[in-house]
Design goal:
Chain lengths: 222, 216, 292
């Protein structure tokens, strides 16, 4: 059986490829931003709120971490109309990715808050800082530095999850390339191209993350 | 609106389909673990070429999304003449992918053992093999066990992607139910519940095992 | 100024800190048992005792970093940490009230607890800006003056990671001083320091005492306590086992536990090699005060 690789399949569809790549980046960034915003809000609420709210938030986190991303997307995109929520694939993709990521970001921020040494908080309390001031001036600056590796890891994980969005017809990279693959019956070329694209994406993101870690980690003592 | 009845109706079929999900996850963990030992040894090897090869393996399987790997296995294997049922192709893809993550966990476990312990063993006269088996391996296992349970949970969730290549797991069955009953919300929420229960049970079992290991 | 909501007579302000029958439980363990301590203005009180005796717990209670369950602690006449609710029952005070009562109490910790993302200057100025609401320029001026007082004006722009342990602790002292406290609490300030760095911190504390600062210090530095303290308190198993001037406690120790504690200390720290008479003509090293 002859092995056959036709690169013209790819070179002929560069515009579509570029669009798909751009969509991937857009959904990825949108999801990350939403996820971080919600996750941070959850972590803050967990500090300030009472038992019931905390219990609800705990359930939220467990649900989004305990079920597959694909199933969450299906509930949102296919199940949404049942309770009045009809979303475009792209919107559903960004929202879905954001909700999925928010649970993980919430856990990262929570561990960040608790990782600031108790003594630093006590020193601030003794000097008369209010609760909010302690969070803003002592905990946040330190914790953001400490959790940078966890955050970059999550961001990279989310970049790979964008591939799943192809199943709900979001026109990102995987959707576009597998579409071309079926059309031109050139699965191997397109799939290998997909692999290369994601490897490049992940590598660039990793390097960026390391750079951020280096720049920000200078002030950390014990 | 939401029909509890439809949800409950969907459950029995989904629970049956959970067999495929759990099976694939187990196979992925076990086969993946075996492959991971090989990859981890390669990574820790003194031979530069071998360790780079291991590094490339890990880089590829952790850098490319699992969905793409599944599609690749599904289309690539027939391409080179290997014809296997979708379930086997999916299991292979999941195992190879999981092996990369497990290899990193194992590597972390081995590196995390303080070097002084091996030195002490050497001074006491223990042979190299003895030191590895009796000192490094038990500790590596102890340190990596929580991560292993975590990986199992990740596997169960990741296995939902095998629905895309046609394997009749929980997700695929939920899709069928949704198509035939026109009640997608209930079908998928039911699927989510099934996954939650599986993962919850796994986490509980994992905590129990952790506690027992910590005492021993 | 807000009127205190826990009516205590101002006559009790004779003492800057007045702890009465303070007790604290940790589960079933009684960590502090009927501890009473009164500190006058400009007095230096040193608290000594074995590990786990409750001395740190007592000190931290004086700053309400530990909730003491029983007894009362008055800071300049005001009850610390608790208020009376309408039915006359004692409840934990709101945070603003706690902060208000302890606004004139400064604390220095064993682990320094400088904030690593700020420079020395920023560490000292931060509370002046956020709590005292001083304008930035004014706060920085005061901070620099404080750093100068502890001998670190030239290191004002360094981050804690670039400072030695002794320097970090001195910055921590400056940080507490900047708020112009009426009393300073020190929780084993030199225990985390390399031996060579202990001296510079003790010197700053000696200067503070000479300037008339009221201080309560938990310490293992017996020589320092002997030289500087007006009162020495020995705590054992949560109780005050001995209490008096350094002369009383160190040289006329009656209490058996105290004698044992002091003997253990001497055994560990004296540096004539054997427990025999020193060679004739050799003057034995007097006390640990030679370390300063």
């Amino acid at each position: 059986m002859a092995l056959h690789f036709d690169a013209s399949v790819l070179t002929g569809s560069l515009p579509a490829l570029a669009e798909g790549f751009a969509t991937t980046i857009a959904v990825w960034m949108g999801g990350v931003l939403i996820g971080m915003a919600i996750g941070f809000a959850i972590a803050l609420l967990q500090i300030f709120c009472g038992k019931w709210v905390r219990g609800f938030l705990r359930a939220y986190i467990e649900i989004f971490r305990g079920t597959p991303f694909l199933v969450q997307l299906f509930v949102l995109y296919y199940g949404g109309p049942s309770f009045g929520l009809s979303l475009e694939p792209l919107t559903a993709g960004i929202v879905g990715l954001g909700l999925y990521g928010s649970a993980y970001f919430a856990e990262a921020f929570r561990s960040g808050f608790t990782s600031v040494p108790r003594g630093h908080i006590e020193a601030a309390e003794c000097l008369g800082f209010t609760r909010l001031q302690v969070i803003m001036r002592v905990q946040l600056p330190q914790m953001l530095v400490i959790i940078v590796p966890a955050l970059t890891n999550l961001i990279i994980v989310l970049s790979k999850e964008t591939a799943v969005l192809s199943v709900v017809t979001v026109p990102e990279l995987t959707f576009v390339l597998t579409g071309i693959g079926s059309e031109k019956f050139a699965f191997v070329e397109t799939l290998l191209a997909l692999c290369v694209c994601y490897l490049v994406l992940v590598e660039v993101a990793s390097r960026a993350g390391q750079w951020v870690e280096l720049r920000v980690g200078r002030f950390l003592t014990r | 609106m939401f029909s509890l009845h439809a949800l409950l109706d969907a459950l029995p079929l989904l629970i049956k389909a959970a067999q495929a999900t759990v099976l694939i996850s187990l196979v992925g963990l076990v086969v993946g673990f075996v492959v991971a030992i090989g990859v981890c040894s390669a990574r820790l090897s003194k031979n530069v070429f071998v360790s780079k090869l291991g590094g490339a393996y890990v880089g590829f399987f952790r850098g490319v999304p699992l969905l793409v790997q599944l599609l690749l296995t599904y289309y690539f294997l027939p391409f080179i003449g290997i014809n296997v049922p979708p379930l086997v192709a999916a299991a292979a893809a999941v195992s190879l992918c999981e092996a990369a993550y497990l290899a990193e966990i194992l590597r972390g476990g081995f590196i995390g053992i303080p070097h002084g312990q091996l030195e002490a063993a050497q001074l006491l006269g223990l042979s190299r093999v003895h030191a590895v088996l009796r000192i490094q391996v038990p500790q590596a296992l102890r340190m990596t066990l929580p991560s292993l349970v975590n990986e199992m949970v990740m596997l169960v969730k990741a296995s939902s992607l095998i629905s895309v290549v046609g394997v009749a797991d929980v997700t695929r069955t939920a899709q069928n139910i949704a198509a035939s009953t026109y009640r997608p919300l209930e079908a998928y929420v039911a699927a989510g519940l099934v996954y939650l229960v599986i993962n919850g049970a796994l986490s509980l079992a994992g905590h129990r095992a952790e506690r027992r290991l910590a005492q021993g | 100024m807000k009127k205190p909501i826990n009516g205590n007579t101002p006559a009790q302000a004779e003492y800057i800190v007045d702890a009465r029958h303070v007790g604290k439980h940790f589960g079933t363990l009684k960590v502090l048992d009927d501890v009473s301590l009164a500190v006058r203005k400009s007095e230096v009180t040193c608290i000594i005792g074995p590990s786990g005796s409750g001395k740190s717990t007592l000190l931290r209670s004086l700053a309400f970093l530990e909730e003491y369950g029983e007894g009362e602690i008055f800071i300049e006449g005001e009850l610390l940490g608790y208020v009376m609710d309408r039915s006359g029952k004692r409840v934990r005070a709101p945070q603003a009230e706690i902060n208000r009562v302890r606004r004139n109490v400064g604390m220095v910790f064993q682990q320094f607890n400088l904030w690593p993302h700020m420079t020395a200057m920023e560490n000292v100025a931060e509370a002046l800006i956020r709590v005292r609401k001083l304008p930035k320029a004014e706060a920085h001026k005061r901070a620099l003056a404080m750093l100068d007082k502890v001998g670190l004006a030239d290191r004002a722009n360094n981050h804690p990671a670039r400072l030695s342990g002794g320097q970090q602790q001195r910055v921590a002292i400056a940080r507490a001083l900047a708020m112009e406290p009426h009393i300073m609490l020190f929780d084993e300030p030199t225990s985390a320091l390399d031996p060579e760095l202990v001296g510079e911190v003790l010197q700053v504390m000696k200067d503070l005492a000479n300037d008339g600062m009221t201080m309560v210090i938990v310490t293992h530095e017996m020589g320092f306590a002997a030289q500087v303290a007006d009162t020495v308190v020995f705590i054992d198993h949560g109780k005050i086992a001995a209490h008096g001037s350094p002369e009383d406690v160190f040289h006329n120790a009656q209490q058996p536990r105290l004698r044992q504690f002091l003997q253990n200390y001497l055994d560990r720290n004296a540096f004539w090699a054997r427990r025999e008479e020193p060679a004739p003509g050799v003057v034995p090293v007097a006390t640990e005060s030679s370390r300063i």
